[in-house]
User: Fold Protein-disulfide isomerase from Reinekea marinisedimentorum.
Amino acid sequence: MKAVKFIQPVALAASLFAAASFTQAEEFSKSEIEEIVHQYILEHPEVIAEAIHKLQQRAEQEKAQKEAESLQQMTDMLINNPIDPVGGNSEGSLTIVEFFDYNCGYCKRANDTLQALIADNPDLKVVYKEWPILSESSGTAARIALAANLVYPEKYEALHRALLSTRSLRSENDVWKVIEQQQLDRAAIEAKLNDESIEQHISETSYLAQQLGITGTPAFVVGGRILKGAYPQAEIQKAIDEAKDS
Assistant:
């Protein structure tokens, strides 16, 4: 079916090209036109690849434009939401947003990359978007971390790093072990687990991801760029530098 869709515009162009060599008064039957088109494609098969490439370029441009428009419309929700945990330089003039899941292996790898970027960019503010999409235990970890942020906002980033550094968070008990290792008050955190801002954060993060075309973790938003996946440090730094210059 895809081949037919691609060939249709090519066939139309070919038939018009062929018809141009005849007088307008001359008429062709359907079978004659099909034969002209068929012969043209056999003699010029490269037009199919050209049409496919052009279509892909157009789709990518439309996607990029839609993402840019969504980013512009959702800037406040992305970087200025008071319920979001913040790291790096909380007063920094440049912001990077991370969508992550504590059970995501690529997020665990990206953890070191992000910390290196924070060290190299003292003016960098990090907004953390808890997006537990992989498992039930991911949701448990996210909710406990968000509750901890309500009690200890200044200690959230250290907890965040510790949770991502833990090989497995298969149960709620695994998460509480990390809480204890960070010497945080479990009772105080448990008292905040039903705070409405926690579900609001997760719901809004899911909505943002959907609107921005983000389908997995990790994902980063820097300036006008959306980086989907565990990008190398140099590539994210390039996006940061571009945002500085814009």
